[in-house]
């Protein structure tokens, strides 16, 4: 029986979840005026493993819907688009920032004021997840791109 327990402990200890390889730095959600229906969460994701790690969805305690988004330029206009996953390269990093990749909080169920904290759960492709306590910060809106003719 003791050998069986030791063998099972070795099997389980050699298996690690994707989220354990990810270091999350400086997460924050954008403060929005009362009544604003949407916000977004940002962070830097560092992957300490030799495998690509993919976030395939997210949830939050302050939004009805939570989606993974990016900004793309279409006919000279920046537009947000939902994406299927956010990839963190092996031994690399991915930055979620205003004007780029982000976690979109849609249908806010409460006001997001500077100093508040919200929960965001990142769901990884391997079935693991990570619950984050994310501070709400005031962030200047993204400047619109201006084209000179």
Describe the protein.
The chain is mainly beta. The chain has one domain (21-137): Immunoglobulin-like (Sandwich), CATH 2.60.40.1890. It has one helix and ten strands, in the order αββββββββββ. It has one helix at residues 2-14; strands spanning 22-30, 38-47, 53-60, 63-74, 77-82, 86-88, 93-96, 102-108, 117-124, 129-137. Strands 1, 2, 3, 4, 5, 6, 7, 8, 9 and 10 form a ten-stranded mixed sheet that branches. The radius of gyration is 18 Å and the shape is globular.
Brief descriptors of the model:
149 residues; mainly beta; Immunoglobulin-like; 10-stranded mixed sheet; 1 helix; 51% strand; globular; disordered C terminus
Question: How would you summarize the topology of this molecule?
Answer:
Layout: H1 2-14, E1 22-30, E2 38-47, E3 53-60, E4 63-74, E5 77-82, E6 86-88, E7 93-96, E8 102-108, E9 117-124, E10 129-137
Parallel strand pairs: 1-10
Antiparallel strand pairs: 1-2, 2-7, 2-8, 3-6, 3-9, 4-5, 4-8, 9-10
Quick recap of the structure?
By secondary structure, this protein is mainly beta.
Q: How many extended strands?
A: 10
Structural class: mainly beta
Mean pLDDT comes to 86
List the uncertain runs.
2-15, 143-149
Summarize the biggest pleated sheet.
10 strands, mixed
Report the helical percentage. Answer: under 10%
What percentage of the residues does DSSP assign to strands (E)?
Answer: over 45%
How many separate helices? 1
The CATH class turns out to be Mainly Beta
CATH architecture type: Sandwich
Task: Provide the CATH topology.
Answer: Immunoglobulin-like
Please give the radius of gyration in angstroms.
18 Å
